[in-house]
């Protein structure tokens, strides 16, 4: 049934005020225009919506049913309009999903640049693993995600933009000094205690697949949710940590990189978003940095 939204708008104001004259004031139209709109709506619906009398206006049972549906719809529309007006005055909002590691070691300079350019824009960052971030994007809880790639969970995401290439490294402290200046095979590495991210991460998935390609079973000594914690545990000699190279600054602070016979495959950081959903101005501006 094709009914003009304006008719429902008039109905809502009359039903809320239970007054044709009050509705005309709120809508800035004449009382006769209000009456005509209600009559048109009743004809289209083939229902009587109001009981009219000289003293008061009442909703019929059919009118009450319609009001129960129209009222929340009007509130949603009003809320949407308010958010759009707020976006114009504040610069809008951007919701980003990324892991703690990616936020700390990669995103911070871009967030700083964006904040300086759009100081009134609201920035919301949700920290989750690269796998969980895809779920946030699919549920519409974030506008974009910055995640490690390959990521098998990205198969249904429509837009992926590659922004940085990196390599993973094995790091250890002086307890493993006999490994300096050596290049280890994956089989030899498997004999040492390996510290790595847990199964909810693409890094865990990546390293397990790499060992399987060499017919090796990888049994980590410790699995954690934080690369920073992995580095801390490597510093006290609990094992050899597997981390992205962008986590390391020039000073390894008593740690060294354990070299491998085969060069580890490169991975990438990517931005993913759903191009089928309109992007806010803030999100579009942020994407332009990459």
TrEMBL record:
Species per Swiss-Prot/TrEMBL record: Muricomes intestini
Name this protein carries in UniProt: DNA-binding transcriptional LysR family regulator
Family: Belongs to the LysR transcriptional regulatory family.
Record has Transcription regulation as a keyword: yes
SUPFAM superfamilies named in the record: Periplasmic binding protein-like II (SSF53850), Winged helix' DNA-binding domain (SSF46785)
Record-annotated HTH lysR-type domain positions: 1-60
GO molecular function: DNA-binding transcription factor activity; transcription cis-regulatory region binding
PANTHER family named in the record: HTH-TYPE TRANSCRIPTIONAL REGULATOR (PTHR30126), HTH-TYPE TRANSCRIPTIONAL REGULATOR CITR (PTHR30126:SF64)
Lineage of producing organism: Bacteria, Bacillati, Bacillota, Clostridia, Lachnospirales
């Amino acid at each position: 049934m094709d009914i003009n939204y304006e008719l429902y708008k008039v109905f809502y104001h009359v039903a809320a005020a239970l007054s044709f004259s009050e509705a005309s004031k709120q809508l800035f139209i004449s009382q006769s225009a209000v009456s005509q709109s209600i009559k048109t709506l009743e004809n289209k619906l083939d229902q009587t919506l109001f009981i009219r009398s000289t003293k008061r206006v009442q909703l019929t049972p059919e009118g009450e049913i319609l009001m129960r549906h129209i009222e929340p719809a009007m509130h949603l529309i009003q809320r949407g309009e308010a958010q759009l007006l707020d976006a114009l005055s504040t610069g809008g909002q951007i919701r980003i999903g990324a892991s703690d590691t990616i936020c700390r070691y990669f995103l911070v300079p871009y967030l700083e640049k964006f904040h300086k350019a759009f100081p009134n824009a609201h920035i919301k960052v949700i920290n989750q693993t690269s796998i969980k971030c895809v779920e946030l994007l699919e549920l519409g809880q974030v506008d974009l995600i910055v995640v490690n790639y390959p990521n098998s969970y990205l198969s249904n995401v429509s837009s992926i933009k590659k922004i940085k290439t990196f390599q993973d490294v094995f790091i250890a402290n002086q307890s493993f000094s006999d490994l300096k200046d050596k290049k280890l095979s994956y089989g030899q590495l498997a004999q040492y205690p390996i510290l790595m991210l847990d199964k909810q991460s693409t890094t865990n998935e990546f390293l397990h697949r790499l060992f399987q390609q060499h017919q090796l079973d990888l049994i980590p000594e410790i699995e954690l949710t934080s690369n920073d914690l992995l580095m801390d545990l490597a510093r006290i000699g609990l094992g050899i940590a597997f981390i992205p190279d962008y986590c390391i600054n020039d000073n390894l602070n008593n740690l060294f990189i354990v070299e491998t016979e085969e060069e580890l495959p490169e991975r990438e950081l990517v931005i993913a978003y759903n191009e089928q959903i309109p992007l806010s101005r803030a999100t579009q501006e942020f994407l332009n940095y990459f």
